[in-house]
Every structure is written in structure tokens, then in C-alpha cells.
């Protein structure tokens, strides 16, 4: 770089400052154009918030020029032009910056060489587009600090345009995420009456609808020309009254940096406040800012207390505050500051004839209301600050390659496109492939005070580069809401929430956000607010009474711990003990005639089978297991078949015995133990065969019935093959019926040796019990089915035991004198 001469490079800013000129800093070449100032009520004004943009440019250029690590042999200068938010003036001033000093003659150079590096400008996208249409022809870079809506496609065709703001698409996404976070589904939109407002409504409406959010009302601030600064029109009054009375609590405002539409918005707010208090939550886009007009510095900003807005991610530039404190209103280098000072403090300098107070220059900027002028760098000023450093770093990168030419566009653009640096606030600055700043948005909570001051509290952020799920974050605990909401998150719904236990039902003819709340039907629940449908609980759960949660079902089976289970178990043991007692009595008196009568072995077989019948009922109590499920019905069926077969054998033995007493009868050969044993074995074998076939094909197994009872899970033994189960019962019924018929016809035989009457009664009881069992079994559920079956087993067994053996036991125990052959013969005669 030995032959590299020190050169002066120029940054050009076209901004809506509404002033006339800005003198150069030391060692900086300035070109400025004297323009007619913006007039309101015949006074020229400097918009204070836009004036801060100029100051941030000056501050950034100063830092670059004083930094020996950047552009050590190059001094940056700048020129500032005013666009007046007017297309004609924007084109005029864009031509000025590429022309000779003070002469608008493009492509003509004379005098001092001016090396135009880049243009920083465009408070709105229209200004940037107008500038780019000329700068693109001359291959001059433009870094704009405004954003373009996704519908504006001009930016995509301008290769020289870089946007020092994140993509507008991210802001739309952030608005939707913010509304969804607070469950705001019924919102209003306030826009300006221009193409930007129309585009905003179109894009936002589509995204809100896709996310289940309805637009309750859309209000438009219609352009109005010809009002005085503080006047009110009937149209604006009606709109203000409408907004103040609407039940919509949340309004999304498409803020506009453009002075004309911004002025109308502020005017409307002022009218609103004079009509009635406005208790709303304003959700505003990143372009929002408080009043920029001098005569609005007395505007009551309490109406914006608790508002939320988006702002370009920005850091704190600590030295900027010190820079503002050192501003000198007597500096001739700044052509704007005297006018700004007079308007800010309501005074005049000595060289101006006025009846107002004179400006001393000792007035304190920090004493100004925050709505009028802020001592901290705003997000737009921060973008300008970063834009200066982006150009400086790109130019510095070129100098490292040891060559700089007069026309630097072809060299500067690739370096700017790939620029990556950390600014003094610690933020990383770089562009994406669409020439947009890669970044996101802060979420700001505006806290206002009666003295016109306010705080911008960062309560969250929207970072598109963050992983999914953490790209949006907000801390609602530190949010200050409007005092009318008593620090409770405001509701923004067409109607109240549908609480758990209810579901939403859409109202006919109303938007989809308006609905009725209907209770969940039986068997279903809803456990969240505003659910579209109720849902079934899992199989092992059931709805509670409020139908807002599922409760685990209890197991339903006949337990030994339950009163019913204990009662049946004690009853079975009592009958078993009674049977054992009867058996003991018969063993003790086995040599007596009444015991010997009607085949003693059959009596013992019957008593043992009845004892086992009583005991097998215990298999039905307790939690079903595989072994008990297989033994329940099969053991019961075989043992009962033995008992009934014994009764049938006893009945046939009585009949054959009397038939054998007749002279010449051939039945004597059938009388004996062999015949009765054969009957028992044959009848029991058939039942055993059925049970074995059942176990071998489709045996019982433990099962869970989730559906029969709404609040309980039935733990049961699934019988496997229902046909086999009913075959076992049917075969027992057939044996009992045969025994009953035979005993019925033998009931008139002599009583001394005849048990037919007692067998008849026992079989009548048996058949009655099991005939009533079938409908009871089919009509009950859960443990009561098991209880019915146990009761049937006990009742039928007790019927046989009582009807057959109670008369004999009575004689043996209480009438032993009758238990003799002599007494039997007497009774027989």
C-alpha cells in the first residue's frame, strides 16, 4: 500500500429528516442540497425521531474514521438529502448525489473527485425503490434500512439493493406466534389507506386463518388532506367511537414510518382519547414509533400503556448516549440542530426576532419527553449504524487486496454480500442470499408514565435462525398490561373459553372463531380449553363426573377381601363342614340298618362328591389365574356329574330292588354294587370326556373386560368356547332331569327302604336352582356372575345334602330307637 493515496469516500443518505442541510465533520467532504422545508402551519420542522437517524450516521462515521483498525488510510464522508416522502424529490436528489457538486448533471465530473461508495437510505420501501431505479444503472450499492413486504417483488430484481432489516415474512410469522401464545383468536386490524395497508391485510388474513385466528374488524385510516394540526373530522370521530366501543380487546396495527399516514394515525389516537378511554392491547409492527411531530410532544401516551410491538433485534451502543449529551446547538457544521433545538425546547436563538424565550444552548436533551426524542438509539438508527459499518468493513476488505479503483461497485458487492462482523454492541451482522440482514425481532412492551416518559421493555424475541421450538420466546411475567386488565392476560375471543368437560360447536352463520360450548357426551372427556371434540378415555380409564379427566378403572373380581367373597367362602366352608359331619355320622353308624339301606357305598360316594362340590366353589373366589380358570368349570362339572350320577344310581337301585322282590323276577342279577358303580363311571366318563375336549381345543383363560362396566375392569375367566361351557351345564341338567323323572315315578314305594321321595325333592331343588342360574348368569356382569355361579353350586349341593341326608341324620341322632330292624319291620307291617 505504499503507493495508495489517502482518498475521501462518500456515503449518501436520503432520509425523511424534513430539514435543509447538514454541514460536514472535520476532514469530511460534504455535498448537500438546500431544499424547501416541510411546512405545517407555515413552520418548517425537523422530525426529531428522524433527526436521530442523522445523528446515528454521524456517530458511526466518526467511530469509523477514529478507528485505526478500519480504513486507516481512508476517510469516510457523507452527504444527506431529503426525500420529503415524495417520488419527484427522491428522483431529483438521487440524481444530485451522482452528479457534480451543486449541479444535477449526470455523467459529468469536474472539480473535486467524489468517490461514491454506497447510498444508505429509504425510510420506507417506496423511497428505496425509487432510488434503486437510478442507482442500479450506475452500479452503485444501496443499503436500505426499510423492509419490503413479501408481495413487493421489485427488490428481488435489484442486485445492488441490500436490506439492513430482517425479512418482512418473519414479522408476519412473529405476529401469528404472538397471538397464538396468548390464545388471542378474535382480533382487529388497523392499517393505513394505501397499497401497503391492503397488502398487510391480505397477507396477514391468510396466515391468521391458517392458524385458527379470526379478524373481527378491519379499520382503515383514510387519507385526509386539508385538516389543521389539531382539528377533528366527523369521520374520524365516528371511527374513534366505533373502536372505543368494540369488544375486540386486541388490535394489530400496521405502523408506518411515512409521515403523512403516521400523522393521521396519531391524530386518530388523539381523537379516540378525547371521545372515551380506549382499553385495548395494541400489537404493532416494527415500524411503530411514538410521535415525530413537534406539536405532538404533549400527546398523552397513556393510551399505549401495555402495548406490544416488534422491533429489529438491536443492541445497546453505550457511547451514543454520551455523543448526544455533547451536541452543541451553536455548531455550524450541523445545519439541522438549531431548527431542531428551537422546536424541541420551544425557544428561539438571539439572531431571530421572536416573542418566545431565547435558547441558551444549555437545555438538556434528556429532559425531553421520550415520545418526542429518545436518548437511546432506536431500531432504525441502529440499522443505519450497522449499515455504515457494513460498508466500512466491505471497503476495508477490498483494501486488504491492495487495490482500489474509482468504480468500486464490481469489487464492493461480493465483499458486502459475504461480510460478517461483530459490532460494538456485540451483535453479529451478515446478509443472507436475498441480501437481507440475517436476524429477527425483539418483542417490546411499552410502559408509559404520566410525565410523557416511557420504557421499552424487551419481553421476548423472534429468531428465525434458532432451532424449531425455540425460535419464539416470551416472558409474560414481566409484561405490564394496560391498567384496565388488572395485570391479567387479556382475553381476545369471540366468546368465553370452553372449559375442560366441554367442546366447541360452531355457530351457524358466524366466523369459525365463534362457537357454543356443549358438554361432552357420556363416556367422553375434554381435558383442555377450547377443544373441538371430546374423546374417549383409554380402555383402562373412565371419565370423571365433570368429564374433564380420565380416572384409572378399578379391577372387578370376587376377592376374598370383599364382603361378598368372604360371605360365600364362609358359607362354602360351613356346608363342607356339615357334609363332613354327616359323613362322620354315617361312618360311626355304618352298621345300622338306615345306613346300610340303599347301597352304603353309593351313600359314601355321594357324600364325598358333595363335599368336593362345596370346596370347588372356592376356586371361583380370588383373582383369576390360568390354573384356576381351567379347574373352575371342569372340576365343578366332573364332581357334580359324579354326585348326580350317584343320586341316579341310588334311585335305580331302589327301583331294581323292589322289582327283584317279585317272584320269578330276572332283575336280581342287576342288583348289586357292580351295577351302581358302572352307572357312576359311565355317566362321569361322558362329562370328563367333554371337559377334556374343552381343555384340548379352546380352554378357559384369564381375560380383562374393559367395556362391560364403565368404571371398572372386569378380571374374569374367559370360558373360551361358550358351546363347551353350556354343554357341561346341559349334560348335568340332563342327568338331574333323568334322576328326577326316575325318582318321581318311584316315590310311592314303601318308605322303609325308599329314598325316592327325598331324591325327588333334591332333584327338584337342583333343577330349579340351575334353571334360574341361566337368566341370572346372562343378566349380571363382573364379580356378580361369579357370585351367582357359586351360589348355584352351594344351593344345589345343599339341596341334595339336606333333602337326602337330613331325615336319616335326624333318626340316627335324635331317634336312635327307630334305627333297628325290629322297628323297621313294625313300620313296614
UniProtKB/TrEMBL annotation:
Residues 564-828 form the G-protein coupled receptors family 3 profile domain. InterPro entries: ANF_lig-bd_rcpt (IPR001828), ATPase_P-typ_TM_dom_sf (IPR023298), GPCR_3 (IPR000337), GPCR_3_9-Cys_dom (IPR011500), GPCR_3_9-Cys_sf (IPR038550), GPCR_3_C (IPR017978), GPCR_3_Ca_sens_rcpt-rel (IPR000068), GPCR_3_CS (IPR017979). It comes from the Eukaryota. CDD domains: 7tmC_V2R_pheromone. Its main location: membrane. Signal peptide: none annotated. It is found in: Cell membrane. It holds the Pfam family 7tm_3. Keywords: Cell membrane, G-protein coupled receptor, Glycoprotein, Membrane, Receptor, Signal, Transducer, Transmembrane, Transmembrane helix. It is a multi-pass membrane protein. Belongs to the G-protein coupled receptor 3 family. This is G-protein coupled receptors family 3 profile domain-containing protein. The lineage of its organism: Eukaryota, Metazoa, Chordata, Craniata, Vertebrata.
Amino acid at each position: 500500500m505504499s503507493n495508495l493515496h489517502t482518498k475521501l469516500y462518500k456515503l449518501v443518505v436520503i432520509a425523511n429528516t424534513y430539514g435543509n442541510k447538514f454541514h460536514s465533520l472535520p476532514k469530511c467532504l460534504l455535498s448537500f442540497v438546500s431544499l424547501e422545508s416541510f411546512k405545517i402551519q407555515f413552520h418548517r420542522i425537523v422530525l426529531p425521531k428522524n433527526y436521530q437517524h442523522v445523528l446515528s450516521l454521524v456517530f458511526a462515521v466518526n467511530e469509523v474514521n477514529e478507528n485505526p483498525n478500519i480504513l486507516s488510510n481512508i476517510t469516510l464522508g457523507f452527504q444527506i438529502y431529503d426525500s420529503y416522502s415524495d417520488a419527484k424529490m427522491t428522483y431529483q436528489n438521487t440524481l444530485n448525489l451522482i452528479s457534480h457538486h451543486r449541479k444535477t448533471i449526470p455523467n459529468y465530473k469536474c472539480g473535486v473527485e467524489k468517490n461514491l461508495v454506497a447510498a444508505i437510505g429509504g425510510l420506507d420501501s417506496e423511497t428505496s425503490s425509487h432510488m434503486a431505479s437510478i442507482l442500479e444503472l450506475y452500479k452503485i450499492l444501496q443499503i436500505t434500512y426499510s423492509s419490503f413486504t413479501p408481495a413487493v417483488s421489485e427488490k428481488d430484481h435489484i442486485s445492488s439493493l441490500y436490506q439492513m432489516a430482517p425479512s418482512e415474512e418473519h414479522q408476519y410469522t412473529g405476529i401469528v406466534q404472538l397471538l397464538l401464545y396468548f390464545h388471542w383468536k378474535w382480533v382487529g386490524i388497523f392499517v393505513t389507506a394505501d397499497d401497503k395497508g391492503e397488502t398487510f391485510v391480505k397477507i396477514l388474513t391468510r396466515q391468521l386463518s391458517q392458524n385458527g385466528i379470526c379478524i373481527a374488524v378491519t379499520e382503515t385510516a383514510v387519507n385526509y388532506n386539508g385538516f389543521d394540526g389539531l382539528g377533528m373530522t366527523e369521520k374520524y370521530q365516528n371511527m374513534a367511537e366505533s373502536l372505543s366501543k368494540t369488544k375486540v380487546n386486541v388490535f394489530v396495527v400496521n405502523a408506518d414510518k411515512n409521515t403523512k399516514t403516521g400523522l393521521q394515525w396519531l391524530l386518530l389516537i388523539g381523537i379516540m382519547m378525547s371521545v372515551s378511554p380506549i382499553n385495548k392491547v395494541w400489537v404493532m409492527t416494527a415500524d411503530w414509533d411514538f410521535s415525530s411531530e413537534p406539536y405532538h410532544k404533549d400527546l398523552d401516551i397513556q393510551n399505549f400503556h401495555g402495548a406490544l410491538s416488534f422491533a429489529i433485534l438491536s443492541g445497546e451502543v453505550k457511547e451514543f448516549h454520551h455523543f448526544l449529551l455533547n451536541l452543541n446547538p451553536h455548531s455550524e457544521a450541523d445545519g439541522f440542530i438549531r431548527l431542531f433545538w428551537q422546536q424541541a425546547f420551544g425557544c428561539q436563538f438571539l439572531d431571530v426576532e421572536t416573542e418566545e424565550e431565547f435558547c441558551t444552548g444549555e437545555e438538556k436533551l434528556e429532559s425531553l419527553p421520550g415520545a418526542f426524542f429518545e436518548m437511546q438509539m432506536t431500531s432504525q438508527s441502529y440499522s443505519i449504524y450497522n449499515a455504515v459499518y457494513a460498508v466500512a468493513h466491505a471497503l476495508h476488505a477490498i483494501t486488504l487486496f491492495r487495490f482500489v479503483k474509482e468504480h468500486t461497485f464490481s469489487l464492493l458487492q461480493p465483499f458486502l454480500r459475504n461480510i460478517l462482523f461483530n459490532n460494538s454492541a456485540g451483535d453479529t451482522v451478515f446478509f443472507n442470499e436475498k441480501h437481507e440482514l440475517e436476524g429477527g425481532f425483539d418483542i417490546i412492551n411499552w410502559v408509559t408514565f404520566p410525565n410523557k416518559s416511557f420504557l421499552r421493555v424487551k419481553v421476548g424475541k423472534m429468531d428465525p435462525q434458532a432451532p424449531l421450538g425455540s425460535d419464539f420466546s416470551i416472558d409474560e411475567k414481566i409484561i405490564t398490561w394496560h391498567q384496565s386488565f388488572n395485570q391479567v392476560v387479556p382475553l381476545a375471543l369471540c366468546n368465553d373459553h370452553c372449559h375442560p368437560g366441554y367442546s366447541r360447536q360452531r355457530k351457524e352463520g358466524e366466523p369459525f372463531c365463534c362457537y357454543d360450548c356443549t358438554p361432552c357426551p357420556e363416556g367422553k372427556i375434554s381435558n383442555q380449553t377450547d377443544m373441538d371434540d371430546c374423546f374417549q378415555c383409554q380402555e383402562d380409564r373412565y371419565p370423571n363426573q365433570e368429564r374433564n379427566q380420565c380416572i384409572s378403572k378399578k379391577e372387578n373380581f370376587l376377592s376374598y377381601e370383599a364382603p361378598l367373597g368372604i360371605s360365600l367362602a364362609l358359607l362354602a366352608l360351613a356346608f363342607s363342614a356339615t357334609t363332613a359331619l354327616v359323613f362322620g355320622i354315617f361312618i360311626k353308624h355304618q352298621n345300622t340298618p338306615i345306613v346300610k339301606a340303599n347301597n352304603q357305598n353309593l351313600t359314601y360316594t355321594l357324600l364325598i362328591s358333595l363335599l368336593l362340590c362345596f370346596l370347588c366353589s372356592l376356586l371361583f373366589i380370588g383373582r383369576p389365574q390360568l390354573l384356576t380358570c381351567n379347574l373352575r368349570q371342569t372340576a365343578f362339572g366332573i364332581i357334580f356329574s359324579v354326585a348326580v350320577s350317584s343320586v341316579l344310581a341310588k334311585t335305580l337301585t331302589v327301583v331294581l330292588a323292589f322289582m327283584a322282590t317279585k317272584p320269578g323276577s330276572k332283575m336280581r342279577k342287576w342288583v348289586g354294587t357292580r351295577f351302581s358303580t358302572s352307572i357312576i363311571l359311565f355317566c362321569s366318563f361322558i362329562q370328563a370326556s367333554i371337559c377334556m375336549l374343552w381343555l384340548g381345543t379352546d380352554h378357559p383363560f384369564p381375560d380383562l373386560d374393559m367395556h362391560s362396566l364403565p368404571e371398572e375392569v372386569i378380571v374374569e375367566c374367559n370360558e373360551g368356547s361358550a358351546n363347551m361351557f353350556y354343554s357341561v351345564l346341559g349334560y348335568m341338567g340332563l342327568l338331574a332331569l333323568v334322576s328326577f323323572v326316575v325318582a318321581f315315578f318311584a316315590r310311592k314305594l314303601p318308605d322303609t327302604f325308599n329314598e325316592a321321595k327325598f331324591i325327588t325333592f333334591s332333584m327338584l331343588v337342583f333343577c330349579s336352582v340351575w334353571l334360574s342360574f341361566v337368566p341370572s348368569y346372562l343378566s349380571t356382569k363382573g364379580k356378580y356372575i361369579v357370585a351367582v355361579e357359586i351360589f348355584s353350586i352351594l344351593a344345589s349341593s345343599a339341596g341334595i345334602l339336606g333333602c337326602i341326608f337330613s331325615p336319616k341324620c335326624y333318626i340316627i341322632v335324635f331317634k336312635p330307637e327307630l334305627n333297628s330292624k325290629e322297628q323297621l319291620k313294625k313300620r313296614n307291617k
